[in-house]
Write a structure and sequence with these properties.
Number of strands: 6
Strand content: under 5%
Number of helices: 16
Helix content: 55-70%
Pfam families: Glyco_hydro_88
Keywords: Hydrolase, Signal
Largest sheet: 2 strands, antiparallel
Strand order of the largest sheet: 1-2
Shape: globular
Signal peptide: 1-18
GO biological process, one term: carbohydrate metabolic process
Radius of gyration: 20 Å
Structural class: mainly alpha
Order of helices and strands: HHHHHHHEHHEHHHHHEEEHEH
GO molecular function: hydrolase activity
Length: 394
């Protein structure tokens, strides 16, 4: 048994017991670890990369929090390392990397954290380099928009959470002369999605677009898909606030940074209007609130709570108390409705939709009939992020 796994096993039971009297952020994180989630299976799927990445990103936020104990941070570091080692061999070929979704870039934070801890790990640096090299190899549509996956000319909101963070982090640490160029491409990608996917009725963004406008679901003018999917928009919303944070010190006076902030504020305002007035949380299909079959979905709602809290905390949003109140109401609903006490020291998480792909009819019925999963890390890890932000407000 590797030391990291032994360390995790020795500390997990006591840390879960401690978490039960502590905060939801560490309690849910410890519960995710107890289930062995965020580690690649023997045969990874296209979804594996983002599942590992969102767990690692949540744990890394806890590692950087002054509210988390030293012992807990060491446990989380060991688990992030274990997750990285479980998938690293599949990332070392840049050409092969382009066959995976843009979600692959979500692994960048974990790789970077491990490399900065031990720069003798050249295979980790090789993984980072291969991911970076894969950006130039990634197919793009005629507008310059990155394909999300292997579907020609299709760009999704989903990929921006992973891509924007990685491109910014890699150039900052390893290629600072390319930082502005990377920032321009990040903003271009975000803007292309905005211009093609903006919904004039809600002020929100549709799931994605087909630049060729040939998909069965494509709007004949914009190429946009017809549904505002909560989780896809959640990835995009988190991408914006995380990019703003990562670039505040170097670019806060730049037109790019101010532009990204204006987009973030615009989305935040639209999300406030789109929140369900009863629960305070958000619908699976956001442009059809209250329609038969629609429901409050837990992962997208957790992502929006995280973004609103963080945007208020970092003063990216005006009238911070207004946004905090919106986030407070939604967070309270998430905690009371979707958090499940398993009565064994761990927490479960409910109400997360499985996967919604544009490789489908992409109509309303499709989005509201996809199965709900129990303990999906897309929801539980997002709740860790939302909980940490909630606890930082206190």
């Amino acid at each position: 048994m590797r030391f990291s796994q032994l360390f995790i096993n020795l500390t997990l039971s006591t840390s879960i017991a401690a978490s039960t009297t502590n905060n939801y952020s560490t309690w849910m994180a410890d519960s995710i670890i107890s289930r062995g989630q965020g580690i690649a299976p023997e045969t990874p799927t296209a979804s594996t990369y983002l599942q590992i990445g969102i767990v690692q990103n949540a744990l890394l936020q806890l590692i950087h929090s002054p509210m988390v104990s030293h012992d807990a941070k060491e446990k989380y570091r060991a688990y992030v390392q274990q997750g990285t080692e479980s998938i690293l061999d599949r990332l070392l070929n840049a050409s092969q990397d382009t066959l995976y979704p843009l979600d692959r870039f979500s692994l960048g934070r974990g790789l970077l954290a491990e490399y900065l801890d031990d720069q003798d790990k050249q295979n980790v640096k090789e993984g980072l380099d291969a991911l970076n090299e894969s950006i130039a190899l990634q197919p793009r549509n005629q507008y310059g928009g990155l394909w999300y996956f292997t579907y020609p000319n299709w760009s999704y909101l989903d990929g921006m959470y992973s891509y924007a963070s990685f491109a910014s982090l890699y150039t900052t640490h390893f290629d600072p002369r390319s930082t502005l160029e990377a920032s321009r491409d990040i903003i271009d990608q975000l803007d292309l999605l905005w211009s093609h996917c903006f919904d004039n009725t809600t002020g929100l963004l549709f799931h994605g677009y087909d630049a060729s406008k040939t998909a069965v679901w494509a709007n004949p003018i914009t190429g946009a898909s017809p549904i505002v999917w909560g989780r896809a928009l959640g990835w995009y919303f988190m991408a914006l606030v995380n990019w703003l944070e990562a670039n505040t010190s170097s670019q806060s006076d730049s037109s790019q940074w101010r532009h990204a902030r204006s987009r973030f504020v615009s989305l935040a305002d639209a999300l406030v209007k789109a929140a369900d007035p009863v629960s305070g949380a958000w619908w699976q299909a956001l442009n059809y609130p209250g329609r038969e079959g629609n429901y409050i979905e837990s992962s997208g709602s957790a992502m929006f709570v995280y973004g609103l809290y963080k945007g208020a905390r970092l003063n990216y949003l005006p009238q911070q108390q207004v946004y905090r109140k919106i986030a407070d109401k939604a967070y309270a609903y998430l905690a009371s409705t979707f958090v499940v006490n398993n009565h064994n020291g761990t927490l479960g998480w409910n109400g997360t939709v499985s996967v919604c792909s544009l490789n489908s009819t992409a109509d309303y019925e499709y989005y509201v009939t996809q199965p709900l999963l129990y303990d999906s890390v897309h929801g539980s890890a997002s709740f860790v992020l939302a909980s940490l932000e909630n606890e930082m407000q206190l």
